[in-house]
Amino acid sequence: MIIVERLIASLESELSRLTVKKVVVGLRYTCVVLSDDSCGLAATLDEGRCCSKFNWSGPLAGRPALDLARGLMTADSIASSIGLATVNAVLSQNAPMQDVEPIEFLGISEDDVVGMVGNIAPLARHVAGRAKELLIFERNPLQHSKGILPDWAAEWELPRCDVVFITGTAFINKTIDHLLDLCSGRVAIIGPSTPLWPELLNGLGSKRVAGLFGLRVCDPELVYQIVSEGGSTGSFLKKGTAKAVLISLRS
Question: Are residues 115 and 211 in the same domain?
Fold first, then answer.
């Protein structure tokens, strides 16, 4: 069973008790608010569809939360974004709000080779000045530039990395299982899409993660408005959300 299937199965009971209050698929993020007013975010992965119509029969509001969450187990990128946002609404509401810096937690030093799956520019700037080498793997060719590798280069480069940061969007495009299989060093999953799921810290076979660095939505109405107006990460950081972190004590 792949990770996203195990994730949905672990939350099935809780999701079954909730319905969907409202959904917005924004230009950068997708936001889902559930019947208990919990709110979750996930990146909108359009996968080159240029925001084409989402093929889902009937309105999403009022539907069982479990129905939308199961979209994460499909090959449809928009359904997967909605599914992960629904899952994150449940997972993040009780997640501890901690301001733990991933660089400090993972103990990055000048001897470390660091891999970053997804071009997380603010983090990359801090890592580059501390690590021996920084390798950034990016699927979106529009973000390719000097020093940024295509995502397929991870096949031979990730195994030699001492530390790896993986964007939470890897759950949406279903690359998370293989990426974790490639990693031999310390791993953190990072960004607003990150599911704060403790099982990832406990270990799924050999796929144990040291830290999960995500967000908890504190003001659903404000965040929903920002997403609906096409806002990006900087629009809701420290305004409507708070950093939420789960870390492994065994790391």
Answer: yes
Task: Please give the Cα distance from 65 to 175 (Å, whole number).
Answer: 24
- On whether both 156 and 32 belong to a single domain, the answer is no
| Residue-number span of the structural domain to which 75 is assigned | 3-96+219-225
How does 227-249 read in b/e, with b if 16+ C-beta sit within 10 Å?
Answer: beeebebebbeeebbbbbbbbbe
Q: What is the pTM of this model?
A: 0.92
Residue 62 carries which side chain, given as an amino acid letter? G
Residue with tokens 């076979």: 205
Beta bridge partners of 246: 212
159/35 same-domain check:
no
Alpha helices (H) in the chain, listed in sequence order: 3-16, 65-69, 77-92, 102-105, 121-128, 154-157, 176-182, 199-202, 220-228, 233-236
Residues 122 and 195 in one domain: yes
Is residue 196 in some structural domain?
yes
Instruction: Write the CB contacts of 159 (distance below 8 Å, at least 6 apart in sequence).
Output: 182, 183, 184
Token reading at 62: 């009022």
Contacts of 48 (CB under 8 A, 6+ apart): none
Q: Which two tokens stand for residue 107?
A: 């103990």
**Backbone phi and psi for residue 160, each to the nearest 5 degrees, phi listed first:** -95, 0
pLDDT in tens, 54-64: 566 568 999 99
CA-CA-CA-CA torsion sign (143, 148, 154, 160): negative
Same domain, residue pair 111 and 213: yes
* Chain segment 66-91, per-residue pLDDT in tens: 999 999 999 999 999 999 999 999 99
Let me know how long the chain is.
251
